[in-house]
Amino acid sequence: MNIEIRNGRVIDPQADIDRNATLYIADGRIAGLGEAPAGFVAGQSIDAAGCVVCPGLIDLGARLNSIEAELAAAVAGGVTSVVVPPDADPPLDEPELADRLVHRGTEIGKARVLPLGALTLGLNGERLAELAGLKKAGCVAFSQANKPVVDTEALLRAMEYAATFGFAVWLQPQDYWLSRNGIAHEGEVASRLGLAGIPVAAETIAIATIVQLVRDTGCRVHLTRLSSAAGVALLKAARAEGLPVTADVGVHHLLLTENDIGFFNPHARFCPPLRAQGDRQALSDAAASGLLALCSDHTPVGADDKLLPFGEAKPGATGLEVLLPLTLKWAEAAKLTLPQALARITSAPAEVLGMTAGNLAVGAAADVCIFDPQATWQLTPEALKSRGKNSPWQGYMMTGKVRTTLVGGKVVFGG
Amino acid sequence: MHNPQLNKNGELIHLMSIEGLPQPIIKQILDTAESFMEVSAREVKKVPLLRGKSVFNLFFENSTRTRTTFEIAAKRLSADVINLDINKSSTAKGETLLDTIDNLCAMHANLFVVRHASSGAPYLIAEHLQRIGRDDVHVVNAGDGRHAHPTQGLLDMYTIRHYKKDFTQLRVAIVGDILHSRVARSDIHALTTLGVPEVRAIGPETLLPKHLDKLGVQVFHDMNEGLKDCDVIIMLRLQNERMNGALLPSAGEYFRHYGLTPQKLALAKPDAIVMHPGPMNRGVEIHSAVADGSQAVILPQVTFGIAVRMAVMSIVAGN
Predict the structure, then answer these.
(1) What is the rounded distance in angstroms from the CA atom of residue A57 to the CA atom of residue A79?
(2) 3 state SS of A1
(3) Phi, psi (rounded to 5 degrees) for B151
(4) For residue A250, which of A239, A297, B187, B300 is within the disulfide window of CB 3.0 to 4.6 Å?
(5) For residues B156 and B190, is the Cβ–Cβ distance under 8 A?
């Protein structure tokens, strides 16, 4: 069915477009902007007055514990593609599992599912998974989620093997030994509250190791969920050297610090941990300058797994439905324009993935998000479609509400 | 941020930590404890302040000494005391901490004395009580992870006040494993709140938390330097599992550098007092000649502890 989206403010950061125009969709693809293609007859007309019309969001990290609910949450949050880390139960370490996940995603027909295959069997950091087979089954890259590869030789070999096929490896830089006992940033707050610390060196040592192995193997690496100013500095140096390294940051780390732990709030427990104000500022600057892509790091956790003392609570927060409002909140504080902000969650992640996506170019798949940038809503458990109600923002007002989401030219949320 | 241990009128309804406790409340507790000292000397050692109330000693971690002193304190206030040792097997049955609390509330508990291995566990309980509308149930932290042991901190302050009177003229040294010590954290907050001008932390870098200076503490690695002219020395227990490993090479080397011997004690003021939260490791952190010497006030600490715990329970349950 042909769709026209009228009266909206169309923002396509990749093409530097920001104007009021009608967007035309035909055969699941963008067919035109401003002027209808010849012979276009709209089967459906969407009035986007007062709304922004932008490429669907691409989330570089979302766990889909209950896939149907979480994919519904994705499109409710304007997210049209989700990169799924392999730390599911069981871990995504066999082509058949990846195949099944992709198939299930297509069947549900909401957001597109882009799985990351396990780099090693069982994510145990020892034996390589069948990378080529996983790739064929639809995996976009390979990762350990936040499980470490303790054995540096295993990491070297994995990167050599991935480089052989031109596969990208996504790694969360966190030294196993320095982080295994920690539950919070090794800083003032952890010292005061008596929480075992994770030093910044856990991140920098891991990045230094990975960067050296990139230098040696030529493997394309994406660093996930940076948490520290020192980590950002190492990334900058690697980029300046011309190494094929990219990185992202979880949106919560742009807005929160160790101080948000307050009186042991388990919702402020993250992996990697929230760090100091200087770290938050460096991450924010790096994201603003385009060095880091943003992601939700969506981690739905059951209520019982958060109603525990801080150190026993599972880390992570729900993210798919707050990625857009939190990005807008951050952008406002960082004094970015709306197109600059949207680039961090559309074109920048597409670039990380090496995909031509996250834009509204004629011919591109019509993955579109229509949202009201002024509308406010309160974050409550009932307001979320995700099974994960765990959020440090529970009870807060969010600004920015998704009205309609289209994937492949089909309305999958709203109307 | 709302401090969950105070009610809207700024009165103490739970005791979780000395951090954020206003000086007048600390003084109120110490004064009340002083008035209870006389009760312990009576033939009938009881006052009826908590008559008809139920105090549940909820110990998720082993303790004899602290539990016993809480039990004695509650009984002297005429409360009914129920001791629950919740070992690992009951957690293995799947009952969560908050399930346990709900069950005990249904048994009409009035006050929980909680010890837990995880920092912050009492906060979780207090928040839960507020959520379920049980503002008639109170929580006293008897030690949570590395975070706080506020009644120990308060009894230490009672001891210091008893022997030294004025906090604002003192130099106090805390020696040993501060990193893993909830007692040290509570003492530091209490001492700085009460206006002690110089609080020193003495220990090897492996046993000191980062950013101690932000808590108003001066750090010393050399014990001889750190003890110089101190009025009060608080020794901390070194846990067995920390003696040989990555933190310390051996108990012997630790004792040579951080054990309190008569020679090192001589560097402090002649009338300095020596404190220890117990149980002591003689020959590891403290020499027997010091532990049993005239400057040690380790046993009076235990006695004062009962009066301080009576004070805390009567104030918290009375508000």
Answers:
(1) 4
(2) coil
(3) -70, -30
(4) A297
(5) yes
ipTM exceeding the 0.90 mark: yes
Cβ(A42)–Cβ(A18) below 8 Å: no
- Out of B118, B128, B182, name the one closest to residue A312 (CB): B118
Q: Which helix (H) or strand (E) holds B36?
A: helix B23-41
Structure tokens at B109: 């508990």
Amino acid at B151: T
Kindly give the residue spans of alpha helices, DSSP state H, lying in A309-402.
Answer: 323-333, 338-345, 347-353
What does the pLDDT read at residue B305?
A: 97
Please tell me the distance from the alpha carbon of residue A287 to that of residue A137, in angstroms, as a whole number.
32
Q: Please tell me the number of Cα atoms within 13 Å of B139 on its side-chain side.
A: 31
B128 touches chain A (CB under 8 A): yes
Q: Which tens digits make up the pLDDT trace of A213-243?
A: 999 999 999 999 999 999 999 999 999 999 9
For chains A and B, what is the number of CB pairs under 8 angstroms?
A: 74
Tokens of A160: 């050599």
CB A10 within 8 A of CB A23: yes
Angle at B306 between CA B19 and CA B107, to 5 degrees: 80
pLDDT at B89: 45
| Residue ranges of chain B whose pLDDT lies below 50 | 89
What is the pLDDT, as a whole number, of residue B245?
84
CB-based contacts of B12, cutoff 8 Å, min separation 6: B5, B6, B21, B25, B315, B316, B319
CA distance B201 to B213: 10
pLDDT tens digit string along A275-298?
Answer: 999 999 999 999 999 999 999 999
Q: What is the pLDDT of residue B44?
A: 86
A185 with A198: CB under 8 angstroms?
yes
Nearby residues of B24 by Cβ (< 8 Å), 6 or more positions away = none
Which tokens belong to B278?
Answer: 């117990």
With contact defined as beta carbons under 8 Å apart, do A12 and A358 qualify?
no
Query: In this complex, is the C-beta atom of A367 within 8 Å of any C-beta atom belonging to chain B?
Result: no
Rounded distance between C-alpha atoms, residue B20 and residue B22, angstroms:
6
Percentage of chain A modeled with pLDDT above 90: 99
Residue corresponding to tokens 């507790």: B29
Q: How large is the average pLDDT for residues A114-134?
A: 98
DSSP state of B239: P
Cβ partners under 8 Å of residue A294, min gap 6: A60, A248, A249, A250, A251, A254, A287, A323, A327, A330, A344, A345, A348, A349
* Cβ A389 vs Cβ A395: under 8 Å: no
How many CA atoms within 13 Å lie on the side-chain side of B99? 8
- Contact status of B96 with chain A (Cβ, < 8 Å): yes
| Per-residue tokens: A307 | 């109603």
Characterize B187-201 residue by residue with b for buried, 16 or more Cβ atoms within 10 angstroms of its Cβ, and e for exposed: bbbbbbbbebebbbb
Contact check, Cβ <8 Å, A191/B3: no
Cα A221 to Cα A135, A141, A266, A289, A353, distances in angstroms: 16, 10, 31, 20, 11
CA distance B275 to chain A (A): 22
What percent of chain A has a predicted confidence (pLDDT) above 70? 100
Angle at A43 between CA A41 and CA A47, to 5 degrees: 100
The minimum CA-CA distance between B55 and chain A, rounded to whole Å, is 22
- Please name the residues in contact with A32: beta carbons below 8 A apart, sequence gap of 6 or more: A23, A24, A40, A362
State residue B35's pLDDT score: 95
Contact A309 B119 (CB under 8 A): yes
Partners of A188 on chain B (C-beta within 8 Å) are 210-211, 214
The answer, for A395 touching chain B at a CB cutoff of 8 Å, is no
